[in-house]
């Protein structure tokens, strides 16, 4: 089975700068790492590869230094990588990003399954996976906790989700897109040997010229949403001492809450 895994390079810490015009993160200004939930998606891909064979290709869109995240993915066992990097696609919202990633997947080859993390550590929109599936016109399951594959039904995949105290098994036809929750499994660790091997694994780079997407559909120009402002919230604390009987304390606390809600 051929599997594509979508990953994102996110800042290692909250110490990042913001472009004053676009209000987007200046990713080149901070150290990056693979988005944590995407590591869970890579682990699911590796488990399925061990069961079925085939290859795992890891995809990302970002600045040239996002190659590091792809190499990290290949150090975990992914066979190949694809980086989409072009100023034309920079700053795009989730809609524009999904179009670019879907185009890269189509250009690269045919895949039976596309995986990714459900949420990113920086934006946390949870939208890109479903939007990529929509662009490719394939079924998708979001916020999965795991998946199961039966070779007797080789054209289907079962995604496992949690809903309150229940576990749901959702069967869908392949090809499909599944996004996984952070912490749904225990991602394997890279070794010195696998890190060295990752340096020589194939990595393809695409620009928008190679993908052939209209300039008014990608990047900031192709984004139907825009960030109009960004700021650090004001943090403050205050304490109010209450006294009285339990019934009096309960009423005073209720009044305080109502006052805060009314502000």
UniProtKB/TrEMBL annotation:
GO molecular function, one term: electron transfer activity
Xref: CDD domains: ETF_beta
One Pfam family matching this protein: ETF
Domain Electron transfer flavoprotein alpha/beta-subunit N-terminal: 22-215
Classification via SMART domains: ETF (SM00893)
Entry-linked InterPro entries: ETF_a/b_N (IPR014730), ETF_b (IPR012255), ETF_beta_N (IPR033948), Rossmann-like_a/b/a_fold (IPR014729)
Protein name, UniProt field: Electron transfer flavoprotein small subunit
Originating organism: Sporofaciens musculi
Lineage of the species this protein comes from: Bacteria, Bacillati, Bacillota, Clostridia, Lachnospirales
